[in-house]
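Notes from the 1:1 (GR / supervisor)

We went over the backlog. Supervisor wanted to see one worked example end to end before approving the batch request, so GR pasted a single chain during the call. The sequence is below; no edits were made to it. Supervisor asked that the structure be written out right there so they could see what the output format looks like.
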Amino acid sequence: MALSDTQTGSGNNGNETDKVEAGRDPSTGENADNVLSVRGITVGFGSKTVLQDLDLDVRRGEVLGFVGGSGTGKSVLMRTILGLTPKRAGTISVFGHDLSTATPKERRAIERRWGVLFQQGALFSSLTVKQNIQVPMREHLKLSPQLMDELATLKLELVGLPQDAADKFPSELSGGMVKRASLARALALDPDLVFLDEPTSGLDPIGAAAFDSLIANLSSTLGLTVYMVTHDLDSLHSICNRIAVLGKKRVLAIGTLDDMMQNDDPWIKSYFRGERALRRA
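Structure output shown during the call:
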């Protein structure tokens, strides 16, 4: 059964429920405002089940922070959505299309509409920053070298990198520059949905705050939907519209930061109202 805001503490009233029902796609029954819908996902490795009967919705235009304890499966879920890790059961719909039944052509079209920033950036070490940004263009588009160079320049500007970074290799970049270069690659095809896996991990507080501001600005100006796996309390406070909490192999709760602060689940309470969180305040 899918999680609703009422079940997780957001407290929708009847009028809001009517709006959701009115916004459903008649062909799929899904809420038309959901860019991503996960239903009944089960994932495991050998005899170990990591995720079981998990449901999750990501709304159009929001920044969703996805949190959970170490080893609970946050990155596993993201990789499953992307098709990098196989699922044992469940459905994943992106932009209203069930990925399990999509044809190769449909799947390719869907993948053109999302971008991914993996942990540690995952830039190709043998390619320059410019060449890394151009990888999605070469895979999905047929463009002249000159046009790809121009587009790569635009993406560098978009993420706040200097132009002289274009011809540098990843090993020549600082940690913050690697993150920005990886984000530029994720934005190469002007996606509607961006997946970020621990984007501020390894950054100093100033660099992390600057990266949060960048994400917020890009989401606002480009209308991006952002699915962000994170453990950074500052990111959750500053840029996330909603937060989903993973635990016990499923989504324990989803809602606003205020909802999380009022939730009495022991792990959620410890995470958002524990000693470290209170020191932050």
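Supervisor's comment: The two ends are 36 Å apart (CA to CA).
Batch request approved.
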